[in-house]
């Protein structure tokens, strides 16, 4: 018998271990979204699902020769057959199987499955929605409109989903209420008319995972919060442990809710999310609210972009969140030209604590402390900057007052010092305006401005025995400086589609009160855990359903309007002034207040009552989006992945989409500083106001630029008549400032309609990394 010498054995061992990683790579499965050309499907198949199964059977591992085994393997690999969002399917494949699939008849392209995260009462009144407001009266509170949400599920027992006063379920509705763990199908009613869940992609990604609550039951709270924000029914006596007391309701309280759960405690993946959108389209939703997104993905590889294109083609309006990566430019996701991208703003409401000094003077300052409601006659001491922990830890049970700089990091350090010193409470004097993260603290924190701070310091210095009482859980309304853009709201422009200015609009997203699961802690980091039927959250996740609710009102009032027409009405009627009639501020720069640019707030704060009657609209159809994709140099296959069309006509490509905003890029590479650059835009507006109407243009000056509009007057003779105009922006090829902006407004003769569009000029050059 032949034997191997040690050298030969060593060489064989090296060969084996070198191939092991490759072998493991080939056998390891990943989830893929696969685009197929339906025009290639053989006529022998009864439908695309059977074709997809057959295709997968052909690429499956042939180690088992029996056809039944192959078919069974194919069936186990197939996750979803999509009907609307793409022509194709998702499947769990090895690398070798994917390579074989690429040579299959009809294969166009594939995208690897990606993880996704969501962007985490008073607000309806702040938007001008009252029983007598036009938007609620004309739309009857969104009666009969169906708002679908892809989120973490729903808590059906919440009073926000009561069917009291709700209309009948629309006869056109095809949705279902799926039963599951801790969720009976009988939980649905005239308010919550649909509940489905999707997790095949998640389970394929993690085969050993156990879904703790396998149903539409919300175990996180996010979905309950967003859906009740959009369309929650009226709930009297709502509050957050005494903060924000009153009647809670959604923006469209008579609209129906359909929940599609694709976010789980165990994770979330795009295969499940687009399956949820696909089902929502089939069920017949009118509005989709998507408080989620992917960063740094080209349009043709972004499953959210592909799925929403299909939704918009089916006349479904889609509202999406801009993301929570602000205040920096180019951080926005969902820069998708066919959806509404929503930034987050503040409300005209503050949560406060009231300090009553020993001399009887009372001062209020921001605080959202959930602990003890009241501290009575506690010694109060001023400790300058509160830098020295050695001194702070010796104070004992006192209220400590600190003079803090106007920097967020400084404030964070001082709050941390005082909270760890085992004192009663901390009062921090600062001009820093971005205070939201500091007032939501397990330690009692009160923030004061410099003027009120001086009052306290003077009292302490001039009193023999200074003391103060503090009462928490106070709510102040009608804050005049509202709204402002929040610091966390992601800014444009979008790298995935730079030629379309994003975000589109701003809606309330800061400290929003909405429904919450009663068995989910309002703050998982708080000790002890606290539970409530309502919670206060912040994020563009909260702004997105506000805009979705407004879209529901407009859909009811104008059922013939396209999604683009609804978006246009919301954008061109948005408010750019706060309650003091000064420009809306951006608080993303700490203590520096400056007007918010459209790259932060879009066209401005959404105004439902004005959007009801916009005068003119900028409409867009699917062909216009295809022309845009052609101009962005997408290949025919890449465009086909988005449009699901077997043919693409790029003979009339144009990056000049008929959008109600403008963004002009300067600072071309290698441009001499003395050169002038001219940017031109063409737009078509449709008259949806009075038949005989004349509009005159008004352009706010943009420093350093010459802006002109041709013609400067539009005369409409009939309703629905379309007229065109051209915007010309002329300026230096090299800009001194990163972003400058102004507005183009068409104003009718009586001043009833002001159709406003933001204009941004920028030296930014957004690119996908």
UniProtKB/TrEMBL annotation:
GO cellular component terms given for this protein: extracellular region
Active site as annotated: 151 (charge relay system), 222 (charge relay system), 541 (charge relay system)
Ranges where the Inhibitor I9 domain occurs: 31-117
GO MF entries: serine-type endopeptidase activity
Protein name per UniProt: Uncharacterized protein
GO terms for biological process, alphabetical: proteolysis; response to symbiotic bacterium
Domain of life: Eukaryota
Keywords attached to this entry: Glycoprotein, Hydrolase, Protease, Secreted, Serine protease, Signal
Highest classification ranks of the organism: Eukaryota, Viridiplantae, Streptophyta, Embryophyta, Tracheophyta
Coiled-coil intervals: none
Subcellular location: Secreted
Keyword Transcription attached: no
Position of the signal peptide: 1-27
Domain Peptidase S8/S53: 142-585
Family per similarity comment: Belongs to the peptidase S8 family.
Organism: Salix koriyanagi
InterPro entries: Peptidase_S8/S53_dom, Peptidase_S8/S53_dom_sf, Peptidase_S8_Ser-AS, Peptidase_S8_subtilisin-rel, Peptidases_S8_3, S8pro/Inhibitor_I9, S8pro/Inhibitor_I9_sf, SBT
Sequence ranges assigned to domain Subtilisin-like protease fibronectin type-III in this UniProt record: 656-760
